[in-house]
Amino acid sequence: MGTVCSLHSAEPAPVIIDVEAAIQYEQTHLAPMDKTPDGNSVLKAYSSYGKQDNPISARFTLVICVRAGRAMCVRYKRPGFNVSIFTGDMSEAVADIAVIGLAVMGQNLILNMNDHGFTVCAFNRTVSKVEDFLANEAKGTKIVGATSLEDMVRKLKRPRRVLLLVKAGGPVEETIKSLVPLLEAGDIIVDAGNSEYTDSNRRYKELAAKGIHFVGSGVSGGEEGARYGPSMMPGGAIEAWPHLKDIFQSICAKSDGEPCCDWVGNAGAGHFVKMVHNGIEYGDMQLIAEAYSLMNGALGMSEDEMADVFDEWNKGDLDSYLIEITAKILRYRDEKGEHVLPKIRDTAGQKGTGKWTAISALDFGMPVTLIASAVFARCLSALKDERVAASKIRQRKVAKPEDLIKDKKAFIEDIRKALYASKIVSYAGGGGSRKFDWKLNFGAIALMWRGGCIIRSRFLGKIKEAFDKNADLANLLMDQFFLNVIDEAEESWRRVGATAMQLGVSTPAFCTALNFFDGYSSAMSSANILQAQRDFFGAHTYELLEFPGTFVHTNWTGTGGRVTSNAYQA
């Protein structure tokens, strides 16, 4: 039976009127006025609450214009009612899930779901995109389209599951705002875009107050991952997970037979984990870029030589998607037979997710220094014209490669070890989640990242093992396996950093990672002088080593007064 609309008032339960009920009253209640200019049938149905078969005790009148089984318009004759109209073919709800947003990621995720036996309703604000998608990429599939949000909601099975793949920020906000009035308690909204976790925290609370379950899910793997198996990181309303688990774990990537998708935590945990994933991605990419820079600039290696090195690295501990594609990029030639890489302008773009990681780290007081360095390296790369001008101002006083590097093969191995050690530092932190008491399972998250995502690598399996041994591990640098790796790599790591500086090859990520390691493994730092300075000019006090928990202030000037207000924070 096809429902066309539901009426709501301040009185008890809403009544449902359907076309079949209206047809039963057609002969008795049609009036001359109930015809449209184009001659469509107009059906007038009377009903009282819960008594569709009792026109005599009617509480309101519904007028339904029907044409070929399609509700064209609905109007009511009694004022004071809010009528929600569902247009479209009046068939039963058929779709398991709806996806809003038909850019490439959205289309590929829909096709992936279809491949796994799920019926998907596709919708886009520009309806012509839906028509094009159904006529081309989705031709011959079970995928259905929607001409409006109302049409989309009507086609969904309960609880309704709606997944958004639209631009973060305003577009997500507007879509949710338009969608909420059409949903009911228990329905589910999934934001699968690159939203900030703070927005997801807020939306989780706002929608929970309306009885709607919000899920913020990170999706990694790019266009190919969306089509054939991404890594997925859902978090939010745990009540939604039983209704999403089968779909998500069916379409996601698999690693050793295990799905690269599991529940992350409540509120904005899913997007927080995706943000950290993207920050690590920035760090990994910058480290690889610096390894390339050393081989290219210091060793003068050709693209094919460097590709051979990356291919070899990909057979060992550095086995990863990013190492794999770097070798392919180095080998790639254009139609002229020339390598493409040297022709690419050396300015790297960014969407902001790496920056979010660095900013969040500052907010939490977490020293995620390598990721921040990777973000700033991209910012510096964008200053192309200034860099070119600065390079012409003076001759830099740098050493010659042949004076420092006597064994090319040995130095390449030094670079490999430095890259591996620096990579450990990039993954070492993770304390930000403790602020929200999300109790993230870092081992499980590492497993989710082993397939389908940009940072997938063999290395992640070792992280999983470390957290399996100690779920409360504060830092990877405290795990014996990673300590052994650092121990073996340390001399090479330092050699690479020192050589790069003497040659004038910029390696901010390598050096930042080494500096973090030195700082983290130092029992005594230089921060005592910093705190003494703060106490000198701001009377901020300092803690005594001999008496932990005891804070004192020293009158450093000897004149009996403070230099500045103690409200100053430096």
Automatic annotation (TrEMBL):
Signal peptide: none annotated. The keyword NADP applies. It comes from the Eukaryota. Homodimer. Catalyzes the oxidative decarboxylation of 6-phosphogluconate to ribulose 5-phosphate and CO(2), with concomitant reduction of NADP to NADPH. NCBIfam families: gnd, PRK09287.1. Belongs to the 6-phosphogluconate dehydrogenase family. This is 6-phosphogluconate dehydrogenase, decarboxylating. It comes from Steinernema carpocapsae.
